[in-house]
Amino acid sequence: MSIYLDNAATSHPKPEAVTQAVLEAMTEYNANPGRSGHAAALAAARRVLETRERLAALLNAPDPMSMIHCFNCTDALNLAIKGSLRVGDHVIATQLEHNSVLRPLCTLAARGRIRLTLLPPKPDGFIDPEDVRAAIEPDTALIVCTHASNVTGAIQPVAAIGAIAAEHGIRYLIDGAQAVGALPVDVRALRCDLYAFPGHKSLLGPQGTGGLYIRPGVDLLPLREGGTGSSSESLFQPRELPERYESGTVNLPGIAGLCEGCAYVSEHLSAIMMHERELTSALFEGLSALPGVTLYSPREEAARAGIVAFNAGGLSSTQVADALAGAGIAVRGGLHCAPEAHRFLGTLRRGAVRASVGWANTFEDIDALVAAVKALL
Ligand SMILES: Cc1ncc(COP(=O)(O)O)c(C=O)c1O
């Protein structure tokens, strides 16, 4: 891969320590964590715990045991949503959500199990917290909001929504797919009950990793039941965390890699944020100077994550993405699994080109993308 600007899908490259940690887990202590008492199994269990502790520190979670290892952000969101809802509940979500939120909710709504209110953003692309307040009904059981739109990068007022949810005693889930590792995240300050995140995006871990923060005291119905290596005499799922939500063998190599990704991000977070913000601004400015380019991301630097969404001339987004791929530049075209966000932007048919920066990108990468789009126009 010559120039990689598709970090919102999955980050590339990973720090060397991440790759090494995956290899080490598979060669040095490739055992089942939490099951046996031999040295390799204990080493594996220690690595899984260390990752939990690093994740808790990064998100300011009060207890590492409240960080549940999942297989990706979709897995975490499904557990949070389906584990929270009961027949007759009302749910408030937004039109900016990814299909990993929309599909579970819409399926439950279509089966008549829940009622769903999908709030539109304001014309500037941000949800108004007062719209959330106004949508609350007596049986509202869950509010869901994305931390940053995966289409436009617009950072949503998740703390203000958290204050409203807390005021009304309503469970609050944030989809942190585009935020963790790219923005400071403090689950206590956000006053959320559940925070879902992938390990393979800005946390720089391998694919097949992710997690769910569950605020202590919040109970979910487990989606999977099975072996946990603990309470084996019981025929039922243990109540203790994390075992309650982690049935079956975890992805040890992935989690070992994620541990090093977290270590890298914790050490360099402010430098990464500043670098990605400067790259995103250079990209935004470079593209906005080209006649024929339409931009969909917020103009204000502090209001967007490292994503710039655009279209060029009369071309479809996939034509542009394919042409850029031909020029050795990896971006994404199409609908980005967020159909309602595209309906809002008026790009449901055409999609949008999404360029997303990462820790290893350079200003030369940005110049190359802008020059390639210019040549295409
Ligand atoms: C906002 C958002 N939510 C959820 C997801 C799903 O993440 P994963 O691919 O880790 O399941 C993504 C992935 O792109 C996303 O951008």
Based on the model shown, name its key terms.
three-stranded antiparallel beta sheet, binds pyridoxal-5'-phosphate, Aspartate Aminotransferase, domain 2, 377 residues, 38% helix, alpha/beta, Aspartate Aminotransferase, domain 1, seven-stranded mixed beta sheet, globular
Describe the structure in your own words.
There is one protein chain. With 377 residues, this protein is of the alpha/beta class. The chain has two domains: 3-12 and 269-376, Alpha-Beta Complex (Aspartate Aminotransferase, domain 1); 16-263, Type I PLP-dependent aspartate aminotransferase-like (Major domain) (Aspartate Aminotransferase, domain 2), CATH 3.40.640. It is built from eleven helices and twelve strands. The strands form three sheets. Strands 2-8-7-6-5-3-4 form a seven-stranded mixed beta sheet, sandwiched between helices. The chain has a three-stranded antiparallel beta sheet with strand order 9-10-12. Strand 6 (171-175), helix 7 and strand 7 (194-198) form a beta-alpha-beta unit. The radius of gyration is 21 Å and the shape is globular. The relative contact order is 0.17. The model has no long low-confidence stretch (mean pLDDT 97). Pyridoxal-5'-phosphate is lined by residues 9, 72-74, 98, 100, 146, 150, 175, 177-178, 198, 210.
